[in-house]
User: Fold this.
Amino acid sequence: MTTTRLEDYRRIVVKVGSALLVDRRDGLRRQWVETLCRDIAALRESGSDVIIVSSGSIALGRAVMRDTGLGHDRGLKLEESQALASIGQIALAKDWSEALSEKSLVAGQILLTLDDTKDRRRYLNARATIQQLLEAGAVPVINENDSVATNEIRYGDNDRLAARVASMAGADLLVLLSDVDGLYTAPPDKDPDAQFLPHIAEITADIEAMAGDAGSDLSRGGMKTKIEAGRIATKAGCAMIIASGKRDHPLRAIAEGARHSHFEPDASPVTARKKWIAGQLDPAGRFFVDTGALEALKSGKSLLPAGVRKVTGSFARGDTVAICDHAGFEFARGLAAYGADEAVQIAGRKSSEIAGILGYSGRAAMVHRDDMVLTGAQIALNEDE
Assistant:
């Protein structure tokens, strides 16, 4: 039996999935939320900060509007999802506030979009707000701002949003409460021989290959997004737990030995700036490099133009790019020192040739080591994209 003492962690982010929060017919599962808030209050009393990342705005809006045309059971158009989210966000914030206030805790709502964590200044502003709420003794309740987000500026799942929040807030534990109780070697509902993994020391390519699809029609995230969340969190020095939230008192259950998967944090977490770079979910471009460049980067060197064999994507200077080996596996991310057009021109050339090619003396490196972090993501990529 695996147990984890949650009270030993200084700052905990708890992500709650839609399927746990909302019943399609009855709306919010109030009794379950009450038991979770009791667990949170207990952690606060033990000295731990707690941040909630809550799904459920669209699902709750749908339940509120079930007797109207907007609450239909068919697939939702973008504008319908945004409208339901605007209704659900009000209801969800009210429900969290009331449930936490019963335990003498104050809730503070923060709505984020993907752009809020891609832009460095907005990222720092969000981090400062979270820190101020925690210092004041409040419980931040964070959700994606689905009422305004479009497919281009949204996370699409709250697993990775929770990991980004954990990274920006300096949390040392991320708990993903879901309708699954951990990581298996294969989807357990499809493979009777699937084995449960209680402890994951490192997220490798084999671990990523075990990810399955979403397990609920109320949830956008599947195991794949949870593994991606684990990569973001562990690189930031934050441990992660995947556990079932189907039982009452789900956090207390973890401490009492309920089945869960525990992901170890990276032994050498990256700096605050590099946490932000590593956590970017949507790189604007990709640099494919040769073996020599790969070894140089692993030893702490910058990426020079001579080692770049191919450039893809549309990006500007300062945008996040993925750095991949010849087989298309991502092993680093960084901020591009040149826009895409210029990067294509100087790829494979010596740094001393940059001025002659571009007409001005730019940076010697295409990605400076101070603007780069090794991710070890091992995500297969298509060089023709």
